[in-house]
Amino acid sequence: MNQSRIYLASRSPRRGELLTQIGVSFEVLPSDVDESVWPSEAPEHYVLRLAREKAAVGVQSLVARGLPARPVLAADTTVCINGMILGKPESDEAAAIMLRSMSGSWHVVHTAVAVAFADRVEVALSSTQVELAPLTEAEIASYVATGEPCDKAGSYGIQGLAGVFIRRIEGSYSGVMGLPIYETAQLLKKFGVGVL
């Protein structure tokens, strides 16, 4: 199989930018799934499950809509501190609470990537340790007021204004952004999709 174009099962502009960075052509094909966490579900299992589900829904959508068959790439990212999953904040106060909980400490960002084509699905997981600097209440309030935290797991975007709060990372920078480039490229190669 030699594919030159894929479907991206995500509306995330960051994921689109990262695919473009490695020379992958794509069409956006959003796949909406229930993102509820199952009882006692580990963060790693949670993101792997959602990435698989989004990719599978994307493939089903192609068939239902009569679109050309191409690989579907999906991803999911979550932030975890002390085993607790921090999703997207539902309010400014929720964002502030999350930022306070991570202030001056390490947390983990898990991003799972799935590629599906026909009946085949391949997945990969990237886990990155991130150390956030100690934040003052004024810094938290100022950052929350920008609106940047509202659509991001863990209430921050490393590639945005919050980059000034990140002391160091151990792992994949692009994984923290929402699409680990190395793992994504390896998966796409398995489906004959060229990168670069």
Helix percentage range: 25-40%
Which class in CATH terms? Answer: Alpha Beta
The number of helical segments is 6
Report the order of strands and helices.
Answer: EHEHEEHEEHEHH
In angstroms, what separates the terminal alpha carbons?
18 Å
Shape: elongated
Task: Give me the Rg, rounded.
Answer: 17 Å
Low-confidence runs of at least 5 consecutive residues: none
- Portion in strands: 25-35%
Largest sheet: 7 strands, mixed
Structure description:
The structure is a single chain. This protein is of the alpha/beta class and 196 residues long. The protein has a single domain (5-190), classed as Maf protein (Alpha-Beta Complex), CATH 3.90.950. Helix content is 34%, strand content 26%. It is built from six helices and seven strands, in the order βαβαββαββαβαα. Strands 1, 2, 3, 4, 5, 6 and 7 form a seven-stranded mixed β-sheet that branches. Strand 3 and strand 4 (84-86) form a beta hairpin. The longest helix has 23 residues, at 43-65. The model has no long low-confidence stretch (mean pLDDT 95).
List the helices and strands and how they pair.
Blueprint: E1 5-8, H1 13-21, E2 25-28, H2 43-65, E3 72-81, E4 84-86, H3 92-102, E5 106-117, E6 120-132, H4 137-145, E7 166-170, H5 173-177, H6 181-190
Parallel strand pairs: 1-2, 1-3
Antiparallel strand pairs: 3-4, 3-5, 5-6, 6-7
Helix pairs in contact: 3-4
